[in-house]
Amino acid sequence: MGIFKTRKNKKFSYTPRYWDDKGEGSPYQIGHKFDEYRSTIGKTGNLKDRFKNAWNELRHESDRKINRRVLVIFMILLFVFLFLIDFDLSIFTARR
Questions:
Q1: Please, which residues have CB within 8 angstroms of residue 32's CB and are 6 or more apart in sequence?
Q2: For the chain, how many helices (H) and strands (E)?
Q3: What's the rounded Cα separation, in Å, for the pair 55 and 20?
Q4: Which of 23, 24, 45, 83 could form a disulfide with 49 if both were Cys (CB 3.0 to 4.6 A apart)?
Q5: Cα–Cα distance between 77 and 84 in angstroms, integer?
Q6: How far is the C-alpha of 52 from the C-alpha of 41, rounded, in Å?
Q7: Are 89 and 82 in contact (CB under 8 A)?
Q8: For residues 24 and 2, what is the distance between their CA atoms, to the nearest angstrom?
Q9: What is the pLDDT of residues 13-47, one digit of tens each?
Q10: What does the pLDDT read at residue 75?
């Protein structure tokens, strides 16, 4: 009976008629957009090594402009949220 068996997906090996490989690989292969920019993609190892590689990449190859932009956006959203809940924003101003 076919009640407990799951169907297997069909696999097709399509090769274009007028395509010459020339060592470039398949044009239909799906790859991630940022694979060539990351050092942590494709390496095998345990979880600790992958975490160390990702942490080093974050610390040493970060873009300061992007970090500053994210911080500014976060601060704007925070002040909008505080304004919406009627928080007293006068504590952020200098008292005389």
A1: 41
A2: 2, 0
A3: 41
A4: 45
A5: 10
A6: 13
A7: yes
A8: 43
A9: 776 777 666 766 666 767 677 766 666 666 667 88
A10: 94
- Helix, strand, coil fractions of the chain, as percent rounded to 5: 45, 0, 55
Please tell me the distance from the alpha carbon of residue 37 to that of residue 39, in angstroms, as a whole number: 7
What is the identity of the amino acid at 47? L
First to last CA, the chain: 85
Predicted confidence (pLDDT) at residue 85 exceeds the cutoff of 60: yes
Answer whether 39's CB lies under 8 Å from 55's CB: no
Measured CA to CA in angstroms, residue 29 lies from 14, 32, 36 at distances of 11, 10, 15
d(CA 42, CA 9): 26
Other CB atoms within 10 A of residue 40 CB:
16
